[in-house]
Amino acid sequence: MAPPVAPAAGATKADVRDQSALEQRLGQSTSVIMPLLELGAIGYVTWVLAYQICIQYLIDPSAEFRQGFNVQPRRATGIALIVVYAVLLLLLLVPWSRLIQVIWSKPDLVPLGDTSLEKKEVTTSWLGEYDAYICDYEGMPLWCDKCHNWKPDRTHHCKELGRCVRKMDHYCPWAGGIIAETTHKFFLQFVFFGSLYTAYVWIVTAVFLDERISKTGSCPGTWIGVLVVGVLFCIFTFTMSCMTGWNLCINYTSVEGIQRGGVQNIAFLIASTPERSSLPSTPSAQDKPQSHDDWPVLNTIQRGQGRTYVVMQTKPHEHPWYTSLVVGWKDVMGNNIVDWLTPIKHSPYKQRSHRGEFEWGELVYDMAKQYEVHNPGVKLALLN
Ligand SMILES: [Zn+2]
């Protein structure tokens, strides 16, 4: 993903808007052009591998090859290679089609806000659904100036779309658009089967190119072209498969990976206190120990409808959503191998709970427990 281009010094708001609109048009155009180019490349590879290698060289070699270089027909080998190729191509095209279908239905975009309202007038009533949420130092959810709306947990503003996207991973013109909450599973299937397909293409081409050179001395440019394309895309898709698979296991998006090392503020809903008068208050500078290790509490806030929240901060490098490698994987890919390999069901974590926008990791529950230990009688909703 290319870094955003900084507006020149002295640029007006209109200049910045024009630049953003241009970036959006460019980003969205490339996500149509790149898949078309890839389909063209697949057509080219199919012609070379299935027709030139399997049919013209293996199944029915020319009289010149048979008589001059002793290249005998190998019908069974040629047919078997075509069948395996067709299966791998299908395994690539099915998740890719599903990925593009979901991308075009845009399920992960956060609605644009009403620009006629002041920030403080924009409702935060949706926070009432959750026992805990990501917030700023004042306990407010994070705000997007460009969309003029609040950002649910793990949402990021995508410059190519000009919109906030839930659990955004990255914008991928190669795949056809935004990789985020709903498309992450299908994207991993796309790059995984892409790596199998391209590995097969370059291995088959390399084997018969080597044989043809040793038998006939000829080295067709089309075969070399497919070999080069196959190797390059195999490296690319295999690398993306490994990176994406690992990120799913540790429950990081690419955006969160880039921001790794920062801290997160989390607002915890207080379910009950021993008596109203002993409502915990914001710790004063006098009470507050110097060490963050002992006291992660930043603030205690009152929100609408009598709800009180305590705001606590994670330590640098702590990730609030890390559970375990297996749970991270299953949350996105599904509970069994059929779900992992088929692009039918959506990720299980789409079934939200009242605990938060996403299931919290053990770290967040530990923070809540620590708070209850420091404040006897106070109960946090997350633990009840
Ligand atoms: Zn936004």
Task: Describe, in plain words, how this protein is organized in 3D.
This protein is an alpha+beta fold. It has 2 domains: 13-108 and 181-257; 259-383, no CATH class. It contains 9 helices and 11 strands. Strands 1, 8, 9, 10 and 11 form a 5-stranded antiparallel beta sheet that branches. Strands 2-3 form a two-stranded antiparallel ribbon. The chain starts with 12 loop residues before the first helix and ends with a strand. The model is unreliable at 1-8 (pLDDT under 50). Bound molecules: zinc ion (ZN). This is Zf-DHHC-domain-containing protein.
Q: How many H/I helices?
A: 9
Average pLDDT rating: 89
Tally of discrete structural domains:
2
Largest sheet: 5 strands, antiparallel
**Termini separation (Å)?**
42 Å
> How many beta strands in the DSSP annotation?
11
Radius of gyration: 27 Å
- Tell me what portion of residues adopts beta-strand conformation: 5-15%
Hetero groups bound?
Answer: zinc ion
CA-based shape: elongated
List the helices and strands and how they pair.
Blueprint: H1 13-59, H2 63-69, H3 75-105, E1 132-135, E2 142-144, E3 149-151, E4 156-158, E5 163-165, E6 170-172, E7 177-179, H4 184-216, H5 221-249, H6 254-258, E8 265-272, E9 297-303, E10 307-313, H7 325-333, H8 337-341, H9 362-374, E11 379-380
Helix pairs in contact: 1-3, 1-5, 3-4, 4-5, 5-7
